[in-house]
Amino acid sequence: MHKIMAVNAGSSSLKFQLFEMPSEDVLAKGLIERIGMKDAVISIKTHTGKKHEEVSHIADHDQAVKMILEFLISLEVVKNLKEIYGTGHRIVHGGEQFTGATIVTPKVLAKIEQLAEFAPLHNKANATGIRAFQEAIPTAKTVAVFDTAFHQTMPPASFLYSIPYRYYQEHKIRKYGFHGTSHKYVSREAAKFMNRDLKDLRIISCHLGNGASLCAIKDGKSIDTTMGFTPLEGLTMGTRTGNIDPAVVPYIMEKENMSAAEVIDVFNKKSGLLGISELSSDLRDVTSAAQEGNYQSGLALSIFIKRVRETIGAYAVEMGGVDAIIFTAGVGENSVIVREQVIDGLQFMDIKVDKNLNESNENRGSTRSISSFNSKVEILVVPTDEEVEIARDVLSLSNQG
Ligand code: AMP
Fold first, then answer.
1. Looking at ligand 1, which residue's alpha carbon is closest to its atom 22?
2. Are residues 261 and 342 in the same domain?
3. In this structure, are 373 and 265 located in the same domain?
4. Is any ligand 1 atom within 6 A of the Cβ of residue 336?
5. From the alpha carbon of 238, which atom of ligand 1 is closest?
6. What is the pTM assigned to this prediction?
7. Is residue 261 located within the same domain as residue 355?
8. Does the pLDDT of residue 401 top 70, yes or no?
9. 339 vs 318: CA distance, rounded Å
10. How far are the Cα atoms of 18, 36, 133, 174, 375 from residue 181, in angstroms, in the given order?
11. Residue 64: domain span
12. 305-320 pLDDT, tens per residue?
């Protein structure tokens, strides 16, 4: 039995879950927000029902980590920090160097910081989290788990853009893909649920949350995904455009007197469901407004669904068929309407959802099938758990090393 911590450090936040492995029981989880401010908020819950919530000044990530660890002791989750066998850190960008989870050495940490070129806010914050934990628990093994790594199996025909080849050679401009930890986790859970070998399955994983991406998985490996050089490409998302003709950028710059960076900011933060509906980035709000007859919300929902559906079609073609479609993340796990309407357009491929199973609340929180008895393709709802996947990676790498 080992206690393993999964860590997700943002620029001003830090989320963690402490697991008992290999049983995967959650011993404690918590979140610190507004790090660096006077009114930082810390909240921790333990498996025994103990809680701690506090608002106080937290200067930096080092202090945040120290506070978390002190609370784990005072809430009697651990007696001694040496009990924490390893920490696994979510890293947004692993470039082409990292094709899987990796034990963090000084060289690896330097590389992660170097890759901040591709994901400036994220990788720097992720590296800060690593340093803070290494300093606080020097005995623990440290593992980096990359959002991009799972997609490193994509063939060049999937990851190259149709731009001059030397841009790829000289600047590494290509599709990287994100949400890899989630796509990997749900595809493995789906194979277990279906009692099939991953190697025999063609899976389309639909991670539909505030950020959204689809992934085509063949032989357990990502062969295509919708996010690209950055997480802006692909589907319509809560606030992100997804695919758009790049010629729109200079046109908006001229018409709205904006810089390129300002336009990209609009594409990241004010577009997608929010941009079209002019109401909300939250799919629940957009759905209920659409049901009340709000035209723009109805449009936002239709565009969101259309892009998911057409990409499922494209990936089915790419893989020469599909055995399972997975819905996961906030929208995928919860929105009956999105699941129903996405699949509604796929009946010609003998992909059929069972209305009752789709609407049922039974087995919520665990993997469940919603496909009709005469559907040729298994349709599954799989709750994603990136933290467990991180803890699994830490355990398997630490055992090897
Ligand atoms: P995530 O980024 O995975 O946390 O997902 C956030 C998205 O999930 C938001 O757009 C929410 O509106 C959506 N969501 C969460 N719960 C529900 C629900 N019960 N029904 C529909 N959408 C939901």
1. 331
2. yes
3. yes
4. no
5. 10
6. 0.95
7. yes
8. no
9. 22
10. 18, 28, 21, 19, 28
11. 2-146
12. 999 999 999 999 999 9
